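Sequence, please.
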């Protein structure tokens, strides 16, 4: 059986990565395992330090990559993380960058109970397109797509587009 693609799903925290990943895993024509990398890091202790004030971890990137490599080799993966430059370029078949208007993003992060400085930092990063720039610098432009994620209609149409992309990708793999 053809292996599924590896999709890097990235964007500032709160842009909708986990929501998209859950729907995508449900609607994909081929099984996709959703890895929420932040949760994965915490569960497996793949971090060096934890910063109480910022409520964030310093990830042990070498251990993380070693840990993920066998899963990537199997294929059929959604790597959901707020950064994407850590992953080797060869891992990704598609890189999806989610975007959100900063007012909406602020509300989402406030609801999540983030400390104010973390909300501010993430909002500024979204305005300055930090994750998008990172994706563009780390991967070939033809595999990087940017989707707005502000409402349910966009969520559904984004997932439909990714499902269509997967269908074509699978056909291309079979014809190789
Ligand atoms: N396209 C969207 N339309 C409406 N609400 C959304 C959308 N994307 C995300 N949300 C909401 O925003 C919040 C953060 O989404 P989440 O998927 O957890 O973001 P991330 O994984 O990027 O941190 C959740 O409450 C989710 O329901």
């Amino acid at each position: 059986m053809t292996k599924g693609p590896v999709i890097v799903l990235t964007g500032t925290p709160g842009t909708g990565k986990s929501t998209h990943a859950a729907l995508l895993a449900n609607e994909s024509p081929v099984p996709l395992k959703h890895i929420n990398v932040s949760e994965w890091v915490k569960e497996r202790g793949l971090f060096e330090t934890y910063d109480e004030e910022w409520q964030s971890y310093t990830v042990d990137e070498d251990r993380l990559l070693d840990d993920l490599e066998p899963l990537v080799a199997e294929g059929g993966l959604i790597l959901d993380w707020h950064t994407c430059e850590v992953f080797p370029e060869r891992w990704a078949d598609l890189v999806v960058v989610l975007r959100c208007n900063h007012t909406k993003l602020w509300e989402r992060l406030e609801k999540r109970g983030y400390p104010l400085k973390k909300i501010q930092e993430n909002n500024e990063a979204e305005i300055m397109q930090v994750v998008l720039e990172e994706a563009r610098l780390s991967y070939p432009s033809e595999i990087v797509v940017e989707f707005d994620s502000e409402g349910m209609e966009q969520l559904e149409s984004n997932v439909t587009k990714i499902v269509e992309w997967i269908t074509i990708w699978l056909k291309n793999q079979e014809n190789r």
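The pocket of adenosine-5'-diphosphate is lined by residues 11, 13-19, 108, 149-152, 154-155 (CB under 6 Å).
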